[in-house]
Amino acid sequence: MNHIVTVQDAVTAFADFMEPTNAELDAIEREMPVILADVDLLDAHITTLDRTPTELDARRIRRARRRALAARVALVNRTTGASLPGGAA
């Protein structure tokens, strides 16, 4: 008779080593405005899935799209400005 064993110990044996590093946590923190803006945009789209979008819905989607784009532009500008040598922009 063959015993069926779980691989739980093998899978979670290295869980302590799989924690995010400080650099990864800092990157997530820098990207958080973009993530939140994308969540707002998804929320705006989700509200219109089961109905015909009204003018108010369309306005909400446009605003959320603009906020998401602005957050992405701000992130790129911060990233680009930090990576240029000599402080050149």
- What distance separates the N and C termini? 70 Å
How many beta-strand runs? 0
Integer-rounded radius of gyration: 22 Å
Shape: flat
Low-confidence stretches: none
Portion in helices: 55-70%
Structural class: mainly alpha
The helix/strand order is HHH
Most strands sheet: none
How much β-strand is present in the residues? under 5%
Which whole number gives the mean pLDDT? Answer: 84
What does this structure look like?
This protein has 89 residues and is an all-alpha fold. 67% of the residues lie in helices and 0% in strands. The model has no long low-confidence stretch (mean pLDDT 84).
Which features characterize this protein?
3 helices, mainly alpha
Briefly say what this structure is.
This protein is mainly alpha-helical and 89 residues long. The protein contains 3 helices and no strands. The termini are far apart.
Set out the fold topology:
Blueprint: H1 8-12, H2 22-47, H3 55-83
Helix pairs in contact: 2-3
